[in-house]
Design a protein that fits this description.
The protein is 28% helix and 25% strand. The chain is an alpha+beta fold.
Length: 289
């Protein structure tokens, strides 16, 4: 794993050299290219003016902020340079807060942080241990690409994870959602059935199949195209709408009939082969007879 940033985590007089690594796996993402239909040539980004219809060059581009319909404040490169912040290669911790105080909506991109060398390993491990014991996370500032970002330094096992945080003003309020009921009318019977259903479906995240089904299906389509095979269509059936009480009762009955099974990550055909091999020889003979 290659680091993407090198610097220090600093609070008061303590400075811990760290390297930061991308925590997201991007190699499994499928990227499709735009092609010209007639000759399958790659198509680049078409910078076409919506007003005159002409394709413009990079030298003809300017940036502007729309403050009224068809009215823009033009922002020149010199204007941007006046607000550029100096990159210091330091994550300055401004304080430690309980993890529960940070709204989940503020969390953005995750990154791993590791000690930069043996000298920093002890201080790194000490900070991770203290954060684990206290239930706290560090809130810090770091300047990346001329812009100041807020990050949360949180423990994960024996290591540290950095979360880039959104600013509170960037996140909309749930109360702004149209038709959101302030005091929904829920009967005792509905509440009892809902609690029963939730209790019967209690599990752990390791028991849930969290595969990217769209990505897998798209990869199968691509492989079939490469192999010259016919592409089969997958359509998920739409479930009929029923009233809430009927839906709750039917759901509870379904959980009783079909207990949740841990996802194995294997295809249905592979599981059937394993079941056949595990079956006693006499039973297999009767099936093949």
């Amino acid at each position: 794993m290659r680091s993407i940033w090198k610097g220090h985590i600093r609070f008061l007089l303590v400075a811990i050299p760290v390297r930061v690594y991308n925590a997201l796996e991007t190699s499994e993402q499928i990227h499709l290219n735009q092609l010209h239909k007639d000759d399958y040539g790659p198509v680049g980004y078409d910078k076409r003016c919506k007003k005159c219809g002409n394709v413009i060059s990079k030298d003809e581009l300017v940036k502007g902020y729309q403050y009224a319909p068809d009215q823009y404040a033009i922002i020149e490169p010199d204007d941007i340079s006046k607000i550029k912040l100096k990159t210091t290669k330091v994550i300055d911790i401004v304080g430690f807060v309980p993890k529960s105080e940070i709204p989940e909506m503020l969390y953005d991109s995750p990154y791993f942080a590791g000690p930069d060398g043996e000298v920093s390993a002890k201080m790194y491990a000490l900070l991770a241990e203290v954060l684990n014991e206290s239930g706290k996370v560090g809130l810090g500032k770091v300047v990346l690409r001329d812009r100041e970002d807020f990050v949360a330094v949180a423990p994960q096992g024996q290591g540290l994870v950095l979360y880039k945080l959104r600013y509170p003003k960037e996140v909309r309020k749930l109360g702004d959602v149209p038709m959101l009921p302030n005091h929904p009318e829920v009967s005792d019977a509905e509440l009892k059935l809902a609690r029963t259903l939730v209790d019967q479906m209690v599990t752990s995240i390791s028991e849930i199949d969290m595969r990217d089904r769209y990505n897998e299906a798209l990869r199968e389509v691509i492989e079939a195209k490469i192999a010259g095979k016919e592409v089969t269509e997958y359509i998920e059936e739409e479930q009929p709408t029923v009233d809430i009480m009927t839906a709750l009762k039917q759901s509870i009955e379904q959980t009783k009939r079909k207990p949740m099974v841990k996802a194995t990550g294997k295809s249905k055909q592979e599981e059937e082969v394993e079941e056949e091999e595990a079956r006693p020889k006499k039973a297999r003979k009767r099936k093949t007879a």
